[in-house]
Every structure is written in structure tokens, then in C-alpha cells.
Amino acid sequence: MAEHTSSSITIEAAPADVMSVIADFARYPEWTGEVKETEVLATDDRGRAEQVRLVLDAGAIKDDHVLAYTWHGDHEVSWSLVKSQMLRALDGTYALEPLAGGERTEVTYRLAVDVKIPLLGMIKRKAEKVIIDRALAGLKKRVESAPQG
Description:
Layout: E1 5-11, H1 15-23, H2 28-31, E2 35-43, E3 49-58, E4 61-72, E5 76-83, E6 87-99, E7 104-115, H3 121-145
Antiparallel strand pairs: 1-7, 2-3, 3-4, 4-5, 5-6, 6-7
């Protein structure tokens, strides 16, 4: 899955605060829009999710899928598809870069999706871009509105 779409956003919070929102799968339905239900199926020895079931309703795409998560230190998490009804592949990454001495964070979201139904590459990349932009906007709003501490 070589082709991916990526976008970045700056969030007025420390990387740890951003990652804590990303890692809190139970609350995804509160801020993501498309994710209607989540269930952590397995965790690692630090209590971080390793497999998560997500029920997605993104208009044209409705799916119930399981993703496997890999945590790379405290500033990056990636995921790949384990099983799905609609998707052939789904690979993504959130990478966090501290800015302003760690007071702000640049979040880069990379995503590659392959659906089981044929889609033109241009349409698929546009859909990836919409998913990424909505996710980053939702993440920024969620992190910046949360009480810091």
C-alpha cells in the first residue's frame, strides 16, 4: 500500500495531551463524527490498545472493522487493518512533533485506504483527505477544549 494521503495541523497542547486523546478509544464517538462505537479487544503491557473494533458510519461507507495498533514511543502510533466488511486495507499513522518547547504539537496524519469495491484513485484520495481533515479538526478541537493537567 504505497500511496497514502497526509495532512498536518498544529494543536495548542503538549504532545502527551494530544496522545492521551488519540489513545482514548472509548471517547472516539464523542469527537470523531464517523466512529459510532469502539471496543478495545487487546492491550499491551502498558495498557495501550493493540486491537480495536470500530463501527464506522461515514455516509457512503459504513463498516465494522478491527485495527491493530503499534505504538512507537510516546509520539507516534500506527495502525493496520485486521478485518473488515468493506475495506481491503487501512493503514494510518499519527506522528506528533513537539513545537515551542513542547507547548504545542504538530500532528501529521497519514492514511491509505483500499476498499473492496472499485474506486478511481482520485476519488479514493479525496475520500482519504476528507477523513484526515475531519479527524485532525476533531482532534484539535477535542484536545484544545479539554482541561489541561
